[in-house]
Amino acid sequence: MHRVLRTTAFALSLFLLPVIAFAAPAQYQLRVDGLACPFCAYGIEKELNRTDGVESIRIDINAGTVTVTMAEGATMTEAEAARIVEDAGFTLGGFEEVRAQASTKPE
Amino acid sequence: MHAGPQNPGRRPLCRAGAAALLAVVGWTDAARGAPITFNTALPVAKGEFVFRGQFVLDQSGDDPSGADRDRTAWAAVSVLGYGVNGDLALFGVVPYVDRSLDLTVDGSRRSRSAAGLGDVALFGRYTVFKDNFRGGSFRVAPFAGVETPTGDDDESDAFGRLPASVQPGSGSWDPFGGVVLTYQTLDFQIDAQASYRANTEANGFEFGDVARLDASFQYRLWPRDLGGGVPGFLYGIVEANLVYRDENRAGGLDDPDSGGTTLFLVPGLQYVTKRWIVEAAVQLPVFQDLNGTALEKDTVVRAGFRVNF
C-alpha cells in the first residue's frame, strides 16, 4: 500500500514539474550603477514596487544588482528598466533576462 | 553682500573665501565622508520624500567682553525633501528654537530668552553633473534658496526688546546659494559644500553675511565585509565646517564686536538602513578668529534621524 502511494506521488510530481516550470514568471537582473548605500537602495526599491507587473525585487548592494521577479504573464523591457533606474537617480549598467517568461501550457 | 567700497572697514570676503577654499581642498584631499552638519547633500529619488529631524544644542561662552555672557540655543530642526525628478529636489527647513542669553549688567545677572518657530528656509537643488559607476557615484549640484522671516523678531521682556541673537527670527529675507559635491562608494563617501548667505536688514538690524565651506567624510565601520542583500551600515564620520561671518550692522553702523572666522571639527556616528538613519555629531571649534568681543562658540551637539517615505 505504502509503495503504491509513493509511486503515485512520484508519478504526480513528474507530471506537475513541467507545469510548474512552465508557469515560472519572468525574472531580470538589473545592474544599477551608482547604488552605493542602503538609504539610496530604498529609492529604486520604491520605483520598482510601484511598477505594474513587478512581483518582488531583491537588491544586492555589494554586487550593485537588483533582481526583479515579474508577476505571471508580465514582462519588462530594457528601456522600461532604464527609465525606472534613471527616475531613482541611478544609471542602468546592464540588463539581463535571468528567466524568460514562458507559456503556461506545457507542450 | 557687505564687503566692498561702501564698507571699507569690513574684511573682504574674497580673502576669507580663498583661505577657506584652500582649507577645504586640503581637507578633502586627506580624508573622505557624509554630512550631518548640512542638508544640501540629502539624497532623494523622484516622487520620494525624505524627512530629517535633528536636535541641536548650540552653546557659546568664553566671553572676552567682561559681561560674562553665556548663550544657549536649542533647536528642533525639521527638514523635508521631495524629489521632483532624478535631478531636481526641493527642500524645506523648519526650525523650532529656544534661545537664552545670560549676562551681567551693572553688577546684576540677567537672563533673557525666547522660544518659537524660527525662520523657515526653502531651497532647490539641481544635479548638473552625475557619473554613476559600479558601486559608486560622483555628483555636482548647485542649490539656491531663501530664508524667510517666519520667526518672531520683536520679542521683548522686562528689560526691553530682546537682542537679535536671542530673537527666534531675523525678520529678513535672506537669499543663499552654493554648490555641493558628492563622491560616494560602498566603503566611504565624501561631500563638500561651498555656500554663501546674503543676510538683509530688518528692524534696523542686519546680521553679517555668511560664507562657509563644509566637508564631510563618512567611512563604513561595519559590516567590514559586505555579503548579499542590503545590510545596515555603521559609518564613522568626520566633518569640518569653516564659517566666515561678516560684521553685523545696527542702525546703519557696523558692529566691530561681531563676526569672524570659526573652524569646526566634527566627529560623529551614523547608522544607515534602507528606510531610516540615526546620527549624532559634536561640532568642536578648533579655531576661532572673531572680531572684537564677539562671543566664542563652546560646542554644538547634533543628534537626529532621517526617514525615507
Write the layout of secondary structure elements.
The complex is a heterodimer of chains A (107) and B (309).
Chain A: H1 2-23, E1 27-33, H2 38-49, E2 54-60, E3 65-70, H3 78-87, E4 91-99
Antiparallel strand pairs in A: 1-3, 1-4, 2-3
Chain B: H1 13-30, E1 49-61, E2 70-83, E3 88-105, E4 108-117, E5 121-126, E6 129-133, E7 136-147, E8 156-157, E9 160-161, E10 174-185, E11 188-197, E12 205-206, E13 210-222, E14 233-245, E15 249-250, E16 253-254, E17 260-272, E18 276-290, E19 296-308
Summarize the structure.
The complex is a heterodimer of chains A (107) and B (309). Chain A is an alpha+beta fold and 107 residues long.
β-strand number of chain B: 19
The proportion of strand residues of chain A reads 25-35%
| CATH domain fold name of chain B | Porin
The chain-level mean pLDDT of chain A equals 83
What is the β-strand count of chain A?
4
What does it look like?
The complex is a heterodimer of chains A (107) and B (309). Chain A is 41% helix and 27% strand. By secondary structure, chain A is an alpha+beta fold. Chain A has a single domain (24-99), classed as Alpha-Beta Plaits, CATH 3.30.70. Chain A has a four-stranded antiparallel sheet, with helices on one face. Chain B is mainly β. Chain B has one domain: monomeric porin ompg (Porin, Beta Barrel). Chain B has one helix at residues 13-30; strands at 49-61, 70-83, 88-105, 108-117, 121-126, 129-133, 136-147, 156-157, 160-161, 174-185, 188-197, 205-206, 210-222, 233-245, 249-250, 253-254, 260-272, 276-290, 296-308. In chain B, strand 1 (49-61) and strand 2 form a beta hairpin. The two termini of chain B are 38 Å apart.
Q: What are the key terms here?
A:
heterodimer, A: 107 residues, alpha+beta, Alpha-Beta Plaits, four-stranded antiparallel beta sheet, 3 helices, 4 strands, 27% strand, B: 309 residues, mainly beta, Porin, twelve-stranded antiparallel β-barrel, three-stranded antiparallel beta sheet, 6% helix, disordered N terminus
